[in-house]
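I am writing to request your help with a piece of structural work I have in hand. Here, with my thanks, is the record as I have it:
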Amino acid sequence: MRTLMYTISLIVFTVFMSSCYQGSDYYQPTLEEVMTDYDIWYVNYNSTTGTGNIPMLSKAFTITFKQGRVYANNNLVGIGQTGNGYGIQIGTYNTQNGYLIINHDTDGSYAFEVIADTPQSIRLYNSNHNVTYFLEGYHASQFDFDQVFYDNIEYFLQEYIAWEKTYTSQEGTPNEFDNENYLAFTPENITTFYSSKDNPGMALDDIIWDYTGSYEVYDVNGYDNLKIIKLFYEGNGYETFELVVLNDGTIELYHVDSGTTYEFSGRGFIQYKQPGKKATTERQRTKVHRKTIERSSVKK
């Protein structure tokens, strides 16, 4: 479909014709109405184009424009509950002169041209940074917050300082992973993990990380709520697990080779943007392009 751009004096209308016509009357929506037509805009970071970066949008999983205020879900933990689903306030906005101006609490102001592709999808283009972000609109009652966990699970794993093993099933044959009680996934990238054999209940600062390695998450053909994760230990092979999110503080790992099920609980929640404050911990968001594989085991 041909795209139309908001400029200083023009407002997109073609893609909104179905909702703007009432009989023979034509209604031209304002930019403010376009931005507030949906409760939640999902930031499809994988579709981002350009050479620049605007941190407030690169960090956000969702963004909301409401009565001059901008809200964002920068964390997956608590998404759907924090701020009634909108997240935390990160700044203010206005739609003067046909541009969307976002005034971020700590990062300053940014001006965007708004490009409408469909009634439910828009692009935010910033010429100063040469970057375009793709947003998908949803009403709060229709937005699948649970699916956001699986679509962005690499980032969910980063939101705790450590994951502590809290359950091991009686089923399954003994294996080396039985002795590993902590996992951690670095926020600097989506490829590095750490593992520790320290006893459960350790203070987070006292954990000694015995292993360092890389990991990869795979989509599973035919499953939306299941991932495969492989942990590659430096010089020690790899372990394969089925990964399920039980809630925003607990994950289940099913060890494919042994048939053992483990549960890990997150410890030390990391909030990546506190209201009115800079984030105490930064993470680098990158595009996630997963491989899709067949499910190699059937859990009994």
Observations:
- The radius of gyration is 22 Å.
